[in-house]
Amino acid sequence: MPVTRGFVGRRRGHERRLPPGQYDVGGSWPVLTAEAIPWISPEQWSIAVNGLVERPTTWTWDEIHRLPPSTYFGDIHCVTTWSKFDVAFKGVSVDALLDAAGPLPEAAYVLAHSTTGYTTNLPMEDVVDGKAWVVWEYGGKPLPREHGGPVRMITPQLYAWKGAKWINRIEFLTKDRQGFWEVRGYSNSAHPWRDDRYS
After folding, report:
1. Distance of alpha carbon 102 from alpha carbon 56, whole angstroms
2. DSSP 159
3. What confidence tens digit (pLDDT) does each residue in 6-29 have?
């Protein structure tokens, strides 16, 4: 699928939903990745929550589907300046994973890992209290491989690179550890409404 970065216009009335410097991409969903897109079957996939937790835990595809389901409906924003309105994802809240694993009091940061070796860093406050999901459906269908399927993380309040595609581990840390894009000059905090793209 081709990478799309062109301006396609804004929908009337949506301007107030656009963070600074963003445009409404409309019905398309651009494909942007830092690495080759892997082939991962649901049967091969698993996710671990470890690091500074009381109970390091790993879920298979079947096991994570037994957790209480959660959905996100809203907007997503990419650092490359596009925004997509009214997207629908289904999976589980990261809060459910943390309830099972029990982060220790000194755990202040998260490093999300992908099967490809990609990583991205987040402070604890950006993954708790209903701010982050591990998802496997988009628009009622399995999450497309090019967008992180079978499973990715989403953190819709931040630019999309903070939601690791093909996620397989969430690691809890005492100190911040920069991820793939952060060591290349991207922002640690990545807040769209602050136009917080680069460090």
Report:
1. 8
2. B
3. 333 344 455 689 999 999 999 999
Tens-digit pLDDT profile for residues 39-71: 999 999 999 999 999 999 999 999 999 999 999
Residue with tokens 């081709």: 2
Q: Element (H or E) spanning 97, and its range? A: helix 94-101
Residue linked to tokens 């969430």 = 170
Ramachandran class of 37: left when φ > 0, alpha when ψ lies in -120 to 50, beta otherwise: beta
Enter the pTM of the model.
Answer: 0.90
In a domain, 37, yes or no: no
Structure token pair of residue 36: 């080759």
Domain total in the chain? 1
First to last CA, the chain: 30
Q: Which residues form the domain of 108?
A: 42-185
